[in-house]
Specification:
single chain, 107 residues, alpha+beta, Alpha-Beta Plaits, 2 domains, flat
């Protein structure tokens, strides 16, 4: 079965539920790219299974879980900008002297 790049993004009020949702995403082999966002390849069956587990874990807790499958063509159009904090240096507000990585897929 074809795997598609999958994004899981969530906003959950309770810390313990948010942590458990992150653990479930990791169990499915997804990688964190933001505090409450994971990505990675999943088949349709695995996406559906994951969504059910995440929904069950959220239960009646206030929050939102979004799962998005991205086709290969759209993934090639991905653009991202990454600025990393230099090691050993504390950055103050407004300091942007980190390492930058501007990238568009296909470059």
């Amino acid at each position: 079965m074809e795997e598609l790049h999958t994004l899981v993004i969530y906003d959950v009020v309770e810390d313990n539920i948010r942590t458990k949702i992150a653990d479930i995403c990791k169990d499915y082999g997804l990688k964190r790219f933001q505090f409450s966002a994971f990505e990675g390849p999943l088949s349709r069956n695995r996406r559906e299974e994951l969504f059910l587990k995440l929904g069950d874990k959220l239960g009646e807790t206030p929050g939102k879980v979004v799962l998005i499958a991205v086709c290969e063509r759209d993934l090639r159009g991905r653009m991202e900008k990454i600025v990393e904090k230099p090691e050993g240096k504390e950055q103050g507000p407004g300091e942007g002297s980190g390492v930058q990585n501007d990238r568009a897929e296909g470059d």
